[in-house]
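Handoff note, outgoing to incoming analyst
You'll be picking up this chain. Sequence as last confirmed:
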Amino acid sequence: QSSDFNLRWSCFPCEIWASSQVFNGPPPEGILLHHANWVPRAQSAGKQGPGKTPDLEPKIAQLRLLRRLVLDGDRIGQLQLAEQLAADPQLATYHERSFGQQRAGPEWATLPQGHPARPGGSRRAVRR
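Most recent structure output, in case you need it:
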């Protein structure tokens, strides 16, 4: 129990957005912080893998792009960026394993009822 360690769990406000959250919606209006934790694999091809240093340039480019779109008030551009991210099939798999129906671990009771990541569970149980 988190209370045993004097910890309190909560969720970030929606103004803090990670690119892997694209299946929960595009960057929110009034975004304050963007975590570029996902770039389409085509943009980082050949740079990933064991023993390789990841190429940070695609992430930095994504951060700069979204910053420009937000500062310019270009909501259409923000939505187009979200569509490009959501089109990556590997992101869909990552999202299901990290936040969706295949997320392993205990129930996240701070999430609202019906949220796909709330139940938690075992990846093995989900695959059966």
